[in-house]
Amino acid sequence: MRRTVATLACAAVLLAVTPGVGRAGAAPPATVHSPTAGDTVGGYTPPPFGAGCVVHRFGEGEWPPVRLWFTDPLCVEYEKRDITADNGGALRFLLAEPSRFALAATTCRYWQQDHWSVQRSRGATPLVAWDGSYWFDRRARLAALRLTNFRVAGRTAGVGDVVAALADDHPELARALARYGASPGETGLAVTLPRSPWCGTS
User: Fold this and answer.
1) Is pLDDT of 15 > 90?
2) Which is higher by pLDDT, 26 or 111?
3) pTM metric for this prediction
4) With contact defined as beta carbons under 8 Å apart, do 105 and 41 qualify?
């Protein structure tokens, strides 16, 4: 009973912050709305520019080179699995992050994939871990994020877990929420962005 109440509470919060879903049992929208639709929220979609983008891959704590600044579109993949206290991995991660954020700010179309794992020491069960995909297209006024394999102390957590918990007793609500994550440890959404003064529109 306690688990059911907690699950329903979590689902209610998700519905409250996702206007694209509406009441329980309402069918989710089939596509992400036009960027001119305002503060639309929808399910995750891959970046429209992804197929033609060269992915630049970086290892643990590696800084991206200055030559990539203002690349458009810019696609990167970061390894962040060694955020560990006992071997300096956490410090290397913290030192590299500012340059990575700065790089993202220089482009109009950006797609980042990364792989996270945070643990106290080497070989320990991660405190938190996930695989991420995040992108924005300032010209199209769209952005999206998706977390998969999200785990806290080894246990999955995400919209997909809520969907599984609701499937038997509340199938319509589960189907509505599945737009935002269907697998264990999965959560994803897409949103519209305000107009960019320097990127224009597509």
Assistant:
1) no
2) 111
3) 0.78
4) no
